[in-house]
Structures are given as structure tokens and as C-alpha cells.
Design a protein that fits this description.
The chain is α/β, with parallel strands linked by helices. An eight-stranded mixed beta sheet has the order 4-7-6-5-8-9-11-10, sandwiched between helices. A three-stranded antiparallel beta sheet has the order 1-2-3. α2 packs across α9. The termini are far apart. The relative contact order is 0.15.
Length: 279
């Protein structure tokens, strides 16, 4: 971790001036606002209480376990292919989780860096540990992002909330926003069994409508497969996302043995930053 490379991404969340190193583990702005950098190398720039709670260590453990089985490797490869074609020098992952997609997508080159952002400090710490060219930021996507204007070539957003206006601001002109959302058939067997939360039926259409003023849809890829999961993999899959809260009272032992053939389905969208916001 380098304080200098970390600071180059950031602006003060209070007065929006650039941040720069002001001590061994501290960043500050010219008006005197100062922020400690965690010994693990990331900075927390939350201002006020966020609306939501970040992923817990248990959820991240379940995600690590499930992703290690390889079921999401096709999605990881698709994300890497899209980002590779952009040849980015600065990559921001909003909702970075464990860093599974970011570390695979980060192009080679010592001058190429990424910023992993999440509401969960545990998630940011894990993402940073996954690659030595990833800086870490704890921030709330629903607040003004403490990221400098036009500082980013590509934003990666996988199963995470989106702030269209702020994404537009921090992306350079012509930059790419890569968004992954679940398709309606994703995990429908688990939902039918009462083991997963319901999802928005028209998620893709809502996504395009919510981003349309700031971004133009450029590419769309549909991915779907049937996964023959072990009982343990089903438990990890449930535990790694919002359904973990839904199924917590039932416990892993209530997972029906019959629910092991599970549909995994995603939409992968590439949105190009518009020059100006459409009125």
C-alpha cells in the first residue's frame, strides 16, 4: 500500500478538495480535514450512518467458499474480457466484496491500479489482500463518492447498488460502466423452495431506465447455466448474499436435499458514459 497512490483517487468528503499524504498513516486536504488510513492499508471516508449494513465476515466467508468451487468462473472470465478490451489504467470496483472479479479483471502493468470500494471494511480488507495493486476505500454508494472527478477509466459493478450521477462524475469522458445483475431465472429453484429472497422481475429494464440519462447502453450479454451443487455448496450460495438473512432462522440443516440443481443466470451490461447528462 502507498499513501500516494491511495490519495490520487480521493477527494475530501467534507469539502471535495483533493486529499494528499499528511503523515505516516494519514491523508488530509488543504483546509485541514484529516483522515486516518487503517494499518491494513485502506481508508474509511464514511460520513454519517449509512442506510444499509455491509456484508458480514460470515457472508464473505461463504462467498469465498462458493466462488472457490468455480461456478462463477464463466462470469469472471466475461468481466475480464470486457475490461481487457478497454485497456484501463484506473479501475474502480463499487461493491468489491472479496475482490473475486476485480483481481481477475485488473490488467497487467505496474502503472495500472484499481480501487476496491465497499460499505464493509472486512470486504475492502479482503479485496486489498487479493492483489498488491488494489487500493481500498470504505464509502457509501448512496452518498457523494469521495473520488476525484474523471479519475476512473472503468467502473465495475457486480450485484451492487448504483449511483448513476456519481458514476458519471468520477468516470473519464468515454469511460465504461460494467454492470452485472441477476436474470429472472437466477436461483429460482431456491426461491421456489423458500430459501432465497424474491428479486425484482424487470431488473434489466429498470437498470437501463435508471442509468439512461448518464449512460448509453453499448453491449449486453446473457449468461445461464444449470449447476449441480452439493448440499454444502447450496448452503454457501445462500449464505453469501441477501438470502443469508432470509434463511438464517432455518439454519443450514433445513436445506432440502432436492434443491441441488440450481439455475445460475446473469446479464452483463456495458454502458458508455455520455458526454453530458440528458435532460
Amino acid at each position: 500500500m502507498s499513501l500516494q497512490t491511495l490519495s490520487e483517487w480521493l477527494r475530501c468528503p467534507n469539502c471535495i478538495l483533493p486529499l494528499s499524504p499528511t503523515g505516516t498513516l494519514r491523508l488530509g486536504c488543504s483546509t485541514g480535514h484529516s483522515f486516518d488510513v487503517n494499518k491494513r492499508g485502506f481508508i474509511n471516508l464514511l460520513t454519517g450512518a449509512p442506510k444499509f449494513i455491509g456484508d458480514s465476515a460470515a457472508m464473505l466467508d461463504a462467498r469465498d467458499t462458493f466462488l472457490a468451487a468455480g461456478w462463477y468462473e464463466p462470469l469472471q472470465a466475461a468481466v475480464r474480457a470486457v475490461i481487457s478490451a478497454e485497456h484501463p489504467r484506473r479501475l474502480l470496483d463499487v461493491g468489491c466484496g472479496t475482490g473475486y472479479y476485480l483481481r481477475a479483471a485488473l490488467p497487467p502493468g505496474e502503472d495500472v491500479r484499481a480501487l476496491g470500494m465497499d460499505l464493509s471494511p472486512t470486504a475492502v480488507s479482503r479485496t486489498m489482500r487479493s492483489h498488491d495493486r488494489i487500493d481500498g476505500l470504505v464509502a457509501d454508494v448512496w452518498s457523494p463518492l469521495p473520488v476525484q472527478d474523471a479519475a476512473v477509466d472503468v467502473i465495475l459493478n457486480v450485484f451492487a447498488p448504483r449511483n448513476a450521477a456519481e458514476f458519471h462524475r468520477v468516470l473519464r469522458p468515454g469511460g465504461l460502466l460494467l454492470v452485472v445483475v441477476p436474470r429472472p431465472t437466477h436461483l429460482h429453484e431456491l426461491r421456489r423452495a423458500g430459501l432465497a429472497v424474491e428479486m425484482q422481475a424487470d431488473k434489466a429494464a429498470h437498470l437501463e431506465a435508471s442509468l439512461g440519462a448518464w449512460f448509453a447502453l453499448e453491449s449486453a450479454q446473457q449468461m445461464e447455466q444449470n449447476a449441480a451443487l452439493s448440499a454444502a455448496e447450496v448452503v454457501s450460495l445462500i449464505g453469501m448474499g441477501p438470502s443469508s438473512h432470509h434463511a438464517a432462522s432455518a439454519g443450514p440443516e433445513s436445506t432440502p436435499a432436492s434443491v441441488q440443481d440450481v439455475t445460475i443466470a446473469f446479464d452483463v451490461f456495458g454502458f458508455r458514459r455520455r458526454a453530458t447528462e440528458l435532460c
